[in-house]
Structures are given as C-alpha cells and as structure tokens.
Amino acid sequence: MPTSTASEIRDFADELADRVRAASAARTPLRIVGGDTKAFYGRAVGGERLDVSGYAGVVDYEPSELVITTRAGTRIKEIEALLARQNQRLAFEPPVLGSDSTLGGVVAAGLAGPRRPFAGAVRDSVLGVTVLGGKGEALRFGGTVFKNVAGFDGFRLMAGALGCLGVLLEVSLRVAPIPASELSRSFDLSWPAAQAWITTLMRRPLPLSGVAHDGERLHLRLSGPSAAVAAAAAEFGGEETPAVFWEDLRHRRTGSLGAPRLWRLSVPRTAALNDLPGPAIRDWGGAEIWLDSDAPAERIRTFAAEAGGHATLYRGAGPGEAVFSPLPPGLFALHKRLKAAFDPAGVFNPGRMYEGL
Amino acid sequence: MLDQFDIALDPMFPPVDRGRLISALSEVLPAGALVTKTEGMRVYESDGLAAYRGLPAVVALPRDTGEVRAVLRTCARLGVPVVARGAGTGLSGGALPSPGCVLLSLSRMSRILAIDPDARTARVQPGVRNLAISEAAAPYGLFYAPDPSSQLACSIGGNVAENAGGVHCLKYGLTVHNLQALEIMTLEGEGLTLGGEALDAPGFDLMALMTGSEGLLAVVTEVTVRLLPSPSHAQVMLAAFADVRQAGEAVAAIIAAGIIPAGLEMMDRLALTAAEEHTHAGYPTDAAAILLCELDGAEDDIAEELERVAAICEAAGAVQVRVARDESERQLFWAGRKGAFPAMGRLAPDYYCIDGTIPRRRLPDVLEAIGRLSEEHGLAVANVFHAGDGNLHPLILYDANEDGGIERAEALGGKILELCVAMGGTITGEHGVGREKINQMCAQFGSAEIETFFAIKAAFDPAGLLNPGKAIPTPARCVEHGAMHVHAGKAPFAHLDRF
Ligand SMILES: Cc1cc2nc3c(=O)[nH]c(=O)nc-3n(C[C@H](O)[C@H](O)[C@H](O)COP(=O)(O)OP(=O)(O)OC[C@H]3O[C@@H](n4cnc5c(N)ncnc54)[C@H](O)[C@@H]3O)c2cc1C
After folding, report:
1. Complex prediction ipTM
2. Which of B94, B118, B320, B400 could be cross-linked to B434 through a Cys-Cys bond (beta carbons 3.0 to 4.6 Å apart)?
3. How much is the pLDDT for B495?
4. How many structural domains compose chain A?
5. What distances in angstroms separate CA B442 from CA A132, B211, B484, one per listed residue?
C-alpha cells in the first residue's frame, strides 16, 4: 500500500480540488481515472485526464463493525486481501479487470458479480462517500453506519454514476463475513429447462450465492452455514464445479465474455429470452445475459426492452455509438437537471453515460 | 416549538385564497375526495409525533394516480405546498401539515395490484399497509422483509419515503434494499418509473435517491417490492444482563464473530419491565438489560449458532440465557418487544422517541452517557432498540401537560443526537429528519452538502412546493441554530474550501 504522509494526502486532495475548480471555471471536461482498467466501458470521453489513483490508503477498518473506509484510489485487490485476513469480503463480488483497478472505479462503474441477486448491488454496500462536487468542494454523504436516513442518499447515487456526478475521494463500505461453507455443483441442463428449475429453486429458502448458465451447463453455488449448504448440495447432486468457474465469470474471463463486441442484457429472471442472436452466458439466475452478437444494436435493445429489461453495449462501442439503453425523455431531462445540481459546469466525464449528459 | 413554521427560517409561499383552492380542487376531483371541515381535518393534524400539530388548508384523498395528478397540477398552478401522507405513523413530523398546504393522503390507494411468486415481487399501491404485503405473500411461502414495529399500520409509501427499517433489517436489509421499482409523480404531474423489472436500470440510481426522500422530491404512486422465501426455521434467544454495558459489549461481540442474526434487539430495565407488565412475555424484570437474538435458517445451523451466541453472551457476563421453549414462546418474546412502545404509557403520560445510530462498539459508552444525560436533565429514559444495527431508540419520558415538559424532552433529545454525531453516527437511523430533527441536520452536514440537497430537490421540484420546511434546513436556520459542523471532533477535509 502506498505510504503517504497525512500532509501528502492533504496536498493531493487540495490539488484535485484545484484542478476541479480550474476545469469548472474554464469548462474543460475532465476524464476521471482510477486504474483505467474499464476505459472500454461507457462512451469515450475527451478532456483532461484527472488521475485519482494516487489518492489511496485505508482510512479506517473496523472488522467488528463490518465497515471499511478507504480513499478512492486504493487498489481493490489490496482491499480484498485486507478483508480476507479478517475472514471478510465485499458482498457484491465486483469484477476486477486489472491489478490497478481502484475502489473508486469499482463504485463508479457499479458492476457486480455472480452474488448480486443474493447479496445486493454495489450501492447496497455503500454506506457513505466523500466526493468533490463541481465547485471543488468536498461533499460528505452518508457515513459509516448501516442505518442512516439523514439527508438525501447522495452516496448510493454515486454507485454506477460513472463519475458523472463527482470525483469520489473516500468510500465507506459495509463488508460481509465469509460464510462457513461454500460448494458448487453443475448440471447438464439446456437453458429453458434450467430456467424452469431455477424458478422453483428461487422460491425456496436455499443458501444460493450463484446461479449461472454457461450455454451448456447450469452451475449453482451455495454459501452459508454448513448444514444448510450440505443439505442443499446433497439434494441437488450434480457434478462438482471448481471455484475457479465463479472467479472467471466474475472477472469476465469465461468463454465468450472476451468477445470484442459484447452486450450485457439486464432482464427479469423469468423472461423467456430463448432465441438470442448469438452465444449467451447467463448469470444472476438468468437476469444478466452476456451476449456475443453483431446483430444491429436496435434489434438487441428492442429485444431486451420487450422482455422488460435493457441492454448495454458493454464493450466494443464504435465512435459516438450509444452504450446504454436510451432513457424516456422525462427521465433524461431529470438526469440532466441532477447532473447540473452536482456539476454545474458539466466537467465530470461528460458524455460517458449518455450523449449530452 | 418546531411545529411553528418561521417565515425567516423556513421556505414560505405567498398565501393562496382557501376558497379559490377548494373550488379549483373540486373541479378536478370527484365528490368525497376532499375534507374541508376543521373537525374532519383534525385526524391529519399530526403524525406519530403527536406533540407537533398544524391544520392544512384542505385534505385531498385521491383514489388513483389520475386524481393524484389532478391535485398536484392544481397545487403547482396555484403555488400551494403539498404534504404527502401515508398512514401518519411517522415519528419525526414528516407528515405534519405546513401552513396553507394541501395534505395529500394516499390512504385510499390501498390495493395490492399483483403478486408474482415466480419473480418474487409484489406490486402495490402506496397506501397498502406493510404487514398486508407479507400476509398476501405468505400463501406462496414468501415474505416482505423490512418490518417496522408499526407494520400493522404504516404504509409502504411511507416506508419508501422514510427508508424504514425493522427488526429483520440487520440480515435482510432496509426498505431501499428490498425495492424493485417505483412509480413516482412530480409536482408538475409528470409520472416517472424508477427501477424496473430487471435487477438494475440504466442511468443514475434514482430509485435509491427517492428512497428516504421524505416526500420532498415526488409522490410515490406505486411500489414493486422484492419478496423473500420464508426461512424454514427460526429461533430466538433471550440473554439477561446485570449491567447495560455488558449487554452492549455482547452485541458488538456477536457481530464481530461473523454471525448475522435475523434480529438483535435490546431493552433496558425500564423498557423491559414496562413491556413485561404490558405483554407478560416472561422477561426477567430483575435484569438491567436483555437481548433478543433471533437466528433463522436450517435447524442444525440454528442450533450451532445459538450455542455460539450463548457462549458470547456468557463471556460478556450474561446472568441468564434462555432459548424460547417453542414457537408460541418465540412469538411471545417478540410480542413483548413489539409492544414496548405502547407499554411506555404505563411509565409516563408521554414519551419522546429518539432515533440516532452509532457504531456498535460505542454502545456501552453511549448507553452510559445517555444515563448521565437523563439524570442531568431530570427525565427518565427507557431504551428499546435495534442493537445489532447500532440504531438507538432512547424513549424520553415526560408529561406534556407540565409546563415546559415537551421543551425539556426536546432539549435532552437534541443532546442525545449530538452525542450520536460526535460518536461517528447519525441523527436518524430510520425515522427520518422530518420537522423534528431539522436543526440537528446542521450538526451533521455542512453548508456545501445542504446546498447540494436543495439543488437535488430543485431538480425534481423546482418550485419547492413538496413538503417544504422538512428534512433539509435552510442556511438561515443553520445560522440561527448556530450548530457547528463537526464529525467526531473534527470537520472532514476542514482545509478544503466549503461553499
Ligand atoms: C409504534 C411505532 C413503531 C415504529 N417502529 C418503526 C420501526 O421499527 N422502524 C421504522 O423505520 N419506523 C418505525 N416507526 C415510524 C413509522 O412507522 C415509519 O416511518 C413509517 O415508514 C411511516 O409510514 P407512514 O405510512 O405512517 O408514513 P407517514 O407518517 O404518513 O409519512 C411519513 C413521511 O413519508 C411521506 N410520505 C408518505 N407517503 C408518501 C408517498 N406516497 N409519497 C411520498 N411521500 C410520502 C410523508 O410526507 C412523510 O414525510 C414506528 C412508528 C410507531 C408509531
């Protein structure tokens, strides 16, 4: 972990704030960067690079409180290693796409791994943030306790906002104890049949923590107290799935997840989406579909929308191409007003999420 | 008292002729949708914080989204403030009518629209009672997890507006963690969908922002909640302590051991004796404090975890550890806890419920400090609270008929909240800021945050007519209140400019 002195840290924060103020005054767009491992995600942003990765270090970690506060530039790998030593982990299992990946980037991207349907999204673990607003002022929302309803939840809003609302300086996260037992099983089941079984499983109080279909087989992961996990594993049978399957899925290394043009469909788990235009890997019990397809964007978006969801061009968007499904006009107008509330000069990652935002 | 709005310190709007308002509303609403007589409006004078009172200009009782739109558009056009109200069980004066407002009661919109057991969701109107959702889901083996003690009465719309919690939130999350989609309507009468049928939606997470926004951003007109499968087994343990500190230490130790109970509640002597007299739950009235620790899941796992929890409690000094004999005793233990607030009537004519949260490890010190404050102020305080979350509920006992009674209770409450902030916690864990804690907001947030909160509000509600004077203090109020913005003795980033 970089050992910076308190005064270095302060100087760095001052410098970031000065840069934000100067950029706002000159209306110079800033491209906020942590480890820059997810530059492919979202629309391309021009502008000056604002590197936050030097603003690193653990501020406070109290294992008995299940809370960790770190500066946003802290590498996610270091955080995970620190937690693991206390038998704890991040509930949302974020994809880590390079060793330089930082917590700030993880929170801003808002991407979660296979445990998402069972343990919550990134925003469900965020307890508080300090962000630089567009005037270079440090804003602190939330705090370090789980139950906190004072003020609007500016902190949850930062998760998945792709840095369009502010520069994350510090984040407090709720962490989870590593459960006593974890087992995985796989089954030779084609998709529609697997989906029917998933539906019945999801209605039961089972210790599921991963439900994914790799195109050929259904994989179930069970985590929790030993007796519940053992009983479910015994009931299901199947073959053992190595833990690395979940690691690969989480870090987007499985099969077609490396495709140059990759779609992420977020749909109701129970939707019938059987004739997809390309090879698909289904995570989140079927609620997240990774689709390797060159089909026209319009077709894929309509497909997802008709199923009750939306489609993101996760990787491989051409210049100027939309990445996220368009918002209805009223909602988009509200997004623009909110953006202006945090970032009046529009300097934070402009256009990364949507053109004109 | 804070039920008086102040033209210098609160957002105020030019008065609108009441007759004109009533006739404008009558034109767009069916007969019977308005309450205009004073006697009829009395029930809407206050919410669960009964010490605060005020009459609205008129009460509107829409039956559907179209009627909500009609009310909002009329108010937007005339410049009349709107205060939304669910069941009126809120404890922070959030639904207190502001001067000249239209009180918009959602209580008639109380239909469960759909339960989808396969998707594990329930789509309901905002006036549906919290408990009614779990009751409707029960035949499918499902339940709605957030269970405020007021769940018999409080509405899901009010739960969303407050981000309500409950006994089960330690394990299953707060309201915000159990929502799938919201239909909201802005003051201008524009309907928006936040969230959706998928696990996430494109754009900013406005569903999270809307949750806990206390009726200041928009009116919630429909809620889709997530349902969970009911656990196969549940068991509760009662641990009794001769010293409050020890009970607090046991709470921190249980969580530190990696155990996440389905519920972990604490009651001190005053609270548990009153609850015992009220419910006859079998609590040991000679204890200084008891913990109720619920574990759910597979039977063998529960048995194993109960042993670990018992060992932790004994190590912390528990004088007695008892597992409920059977399901009916388990229910009884919880009935005592759920009836603890009403039981306070036995101790004093009135009680004032405080709602701060602190880091769990501070529990022993904070409980002791509250005891000291209670002596200094000459007012008894009973504690019954969500200990596993560090969410305190000191109940200040007082007599409203005594001269200055409520003012003294408020003064003590303010001190306790400032203590929570100083300990690294927050002034409200689940009841909301409302009108009640508006001054303490100045202790927790600085002017830059408060300015941002107003900017967020303006993005939704440019005219500022939704629930004005609640939840966010004006800068003038913070100057007047004179509170310093301090976290645990030091302002964060104190060296950075604050605007
Ligand atoms: C005995 C007792 C025990 C309690 N226990 C708990 C507990 O364990 N946990 C907990 O969290 N709370 C608890 N509460 C507080 C209260 O029940 C909750 O805050 C509840 O969520 C309020 O719901 P309501 O329908 O009564 O809302 P109301 O009191 O009517 O309104 C609360 C706020 O929500 C706004 N609002 C209401 N409906 C809407 C809507 N449709 N759209 C927009 N804004 C709206 C109002 O303007 C107001 O600001 C308790 C209260 C009592 C009296």
Report:
1. 0.97
2. B94
3. 43
4. 2
5. 20, 21, 7
